[in-house]
Design brief:
This protein is of the alpha+beta class and 170 residues long. The protein is built from six helices and seven strands. A hairpin with a 4-residue loop joins strand 6 and strand 7. It comes from Xylanibacter brevis.
């Protein structure tokens, strides 16, 4: 079995502004999620400064993924937190230059542990573009169960694409 890279999940710092700006304004990612507008550095700086990092207050937690050399390799989000049912949606982005090196898988492992043992969530779910075979493989490997196919769920500006809903009881 391939060994996963060593990563750390940490809170966002003001120094992460440029990475956040790059990710949030990467148009190729817009069709994978619910955002389709550019964000200014000002609004993102304001977000970093005012985020409490308390999932009960913000209804989300955004974590920075760092490798063993302390380089930011991506972001992990627990969003759409539902405090009554103790579930959240997991979102994950690895910067292009760090993709296909095991960082996404390592982040999933750590987010699962964090969600279960620190946040005491009952379940996580993800919505994945069906064209993203690498992501589908990772979530299947970590026992996320495929639910429904969400027909024409994601729009890339030209065409609609199906997405898969996966969930995992923790």
């Amino acid at each position: 079995m391939k060994q996963l890279p060593v990563i750390t999940l940490r809170a966002m710092e003001p120094e992460d502004l440029e990475v956040l700006y790059t990710i949030e304004n990467d148009r190729s990612l817009w069709d994978m999620g619910t955002s389709n507008v550019p964000y200014s550095r000002y609004s993102l700086r304001d977000y970093i400064v005012h985020a409490s990092n308390d999932i009960y207050v913000d209804r989300q937690v955004r974590l920075v993924i760092e490798n063993s050399e302390h380089q930011v390799v991506g972001l992990a989000d627990l969003a759409n937190f539902d405090p009554q049912h103790l579930r959240a949606e997991l979102g994950l982005v690895v910067l292009r230059q760090y993709q296909r090196r095991g960082y996404a898988e390592a982040a999933v492992v750590q987010v699962l542990d964090y969600a279960r043992h620190i946040l005491h969530l009952h379940q996580l779910y993800v919505i994945i573009d069906q064209r993203n075979e690498a992501a589908l493989q990772i979530f299947r490997k970590y026992c996320f169960i495929a639910g429904r196919t969400l027909k024409d769920w994601l729009f890339d500006g030209e065409k609609y694409h199906d997405a898969s809903f996966f969930q995992r009881i923790l």
